[in-house]
Design goal:
It is a single chain. It contains 4 helices and no strands. It is mainly alpha-helical. It folds into 2 domains: about 30 residues; about 60 residues. It is flat.
Length: about 90
């Protein structure tokens, strides 16, 4: 059982080191990785916002709070458009 915890500890350490290295590479001003990740994450977030808009699940349901329930849908629409615009400019 002790070997299992050693393996888990090693995996967590390696994952932390890789995450920190990725964060450093992304933070560099002229990093190709940064440009690629902005484009991929931008399109994924825009797609997520689109799915949220058409889904029946809401943070603020219209049935309970009336017209104020559209605020989260409007926020998702604006966030999706802005992230798609950022991804388009990055590409």
């Amino acid at each position: 059982m002790e070997n299992v915890f050693d393996v888990i500890r090693l995996l967590l350490l390696c994952g932390t080191i890789l995450t920190l290295a990725l964060m450093v590479l992304v933070s560099l001003p002229q990093s190709k990785l940064r440009d690629m990740l902005v484009q991929i994450v931008g399109w994924l977030f825009a797609a997520f916002c689109g799915v949220y808009l058409v889904s029946p699940i809401d943070v603020l349901p219209e049935a309970l709070v009336g017209p104020f329930g559209l605020v989260d849908d409007l926020g998702a629409l604006v966030a999706g458009v802005l992230s798609a615009r950022a991804a388009w400019k990055a590409g």
